[in-house]
Amino acid sequence: MAEAIRVCATGTVAVFLGMGLVYLSIRVVAVTVGLLARGDKS
Amino acid sequence: MTREVLESVGGLLARSGFAHVTWGHGVMWLVAAGLLYLAIVRKFEPLLLVPIAFGVVVANLPLAGLMEPGAGLLWRFYHYGIQWEVIPPLIFLGLGALTDFGPLLGQPRLIFLGAGAQVGVYITFFGAYLMGFDLPEAGTIGIIGGADGPTTIYLASRMAPHMLGTVAVAAYSYMAMVPLIQPPVMRLLTTDAERRIRMKRTRKVHPAEKVVFPVLGCLVVILLIPASAPLMAMFMLGNLFRESRVVERLTNTCQNELLNVVTIFLGISVGATMNAETFLQPRAIFVFLLGLAAFVVSTASGICIAKLMNLLTRDKINPLLGAAGVSAVPMAARVVHKVGAEADRQNYLLMYAMGPNIAGVLGTLIAAGVFLTLLG
């Protein structure tokens, strides 16, 4: 039982952590590309 | 002479498959007939269910030996394709080449709806464990809730190969039944006012973002969960082919010929694992029931996460989008749009729903990777 609860808790945290990292990657890429595009225009 | 010929014919018949047919074979042929009906008449996931059903038929022909280890044709497909973990990653290569991450990149916060739906995977995992399945089996059942066929097959082949056929058929059958399973849950958990919420316009995504994302996304996910590498790497490679726009031939091959070829071998190999001894057991019924529960709970958890996000953020999210967090691309997104349109005909949710829908694929990959890391 304890093992099953550990897997559930770890898995849920890992999924949100993983998706959080992907979210941050998307934001970093968007900001970087935006800044580069602005630099090109100026 | 006549007597000798009759004896010879009698001997031939005694050594034929007819003499060795059991009731179990008959039941499996009926199961295959049911799958063919769903695929051909009802158009339920025909690309997968037709080869799966045919695999069931021929694998349950006595004396044919198609699944005889080391010798049978279908055993070779299964062994080198699935047990060697070749086919599911190749399917993901094709899926990556078909996927447009644009809706997700345009509204990145929707990625958490894809994560939210995976909570259902773990709740079902826990429920399966309480019902007497061991941990790897429970993980294999739980991942059905991710509504991602190749990931389910990949995980089952690694953690509970004896359940491969059952979970694959459950996953694909329920994926086809998403339009029937999800709407009641969606209506139950949302108010009419919530279903009318209109989403903020998606920003325009620069093509460079689409090129960088598969590389960066692949990097962070595999660094966090290395066990997700085979599927994630192929998924993102296929997407990089698509978004780079310099390897059109490779993109076309991944999207069409390669995906079609591996789908044939995946389907027939999975169907061939469904023999009477492993399939006709009370536990198979529990797998189907738990698979259905997994879909329902994952849909509900996605919606609940959307509602939770609405409590924490200013820009409201239509909570129906949470239901698209189960993968089942693009069926779940279409269902979200349809249920949303029932409340407000002018509310076009389809493109917004594609974001969490694709995020659901990533979420299921991570969830499967976690199972492999902790239980594999």
For this entry, give a set of tags:
heterodimer; A: 42 residues; mainly alpha; 1 helix; B: 376 residues; 19 helices; globular
What does this structure look like?
- The complex is a heterodimer of chains A (42) and B (376).
- Chain A is mainly alpha-helical and 42 residues long.
- Chain A has one helix spanning 2-41.
- Chain A has one domain.
- The mean pLDDT of chain A is 90.
- Chain A has 1 helix and no strands.
- Chain B is mostly helical and 376 residues long.
- Chain B has one domain (87-270, 280-375).
- Chain B is built from 19 helices and no strands.
- Chain B has helices spanning 2-14, 23-41, 46-59, 73-83, 87-98, 102-106, 111-130, 135-142, 149-159, 164-176, 178-189, 192-195, 207-224, 229-244, 248-272, 276-279, 282-312, 331-343, 350-375.
- The longest helix of chain B is centred in the last third of the chain and has 31 residues, at 282-312.
- Chain B is globular, with a radius of gyration of 22 Å.
- The mean pLDDT of chain B is 92.
- The interface between A and B is large, with 30 and 41 residues.
Shape of chain B: globular
- Oligomeric form: heterodimer
Q: Secondary-structure element sequence of chain B?
A: HHHHHHHHHHHHHHHHHHH
How are helices and strands ordered from N to C of chain A? Answer: H
Write a brief caption for the model.
The complex is a heterodimer of chains A (42) and B (376). The model of chain A has no long low-confidence stretch (mean pLDDT 90). By secondary structure, chain A is mainly alpha-helical.
